[in-house]
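Hello Y.,

Per our agreement to keep a running log of every chain we model this quarter, I'm adding this entry. I've kept the format consistent with earlier entries: sequence first, then predicted structure.
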Amino acid sequence: VQFIGFEIVDVDHGPIGRIHDVYDLGTQSLAGVHYRDREVLIPLHHELIEAVHEDVKELVMALPKGLLDL
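Predicted structure for the entry above:
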């Protein structure tokens, strides 16, 4: 699934932002999202993804505590 354009929704924080780019680092992929006026890189790891709703372009994730503060 190509996730560019999907909205990331965290199970605790709610909507985070829309994925504008995906960076493939070989060992993992990171979603680039604008969150609170800055870019945040979110790992697209299967253990963090709770649900994929392709019909509404939504990616529900359980983000690690503190990730959005980096």
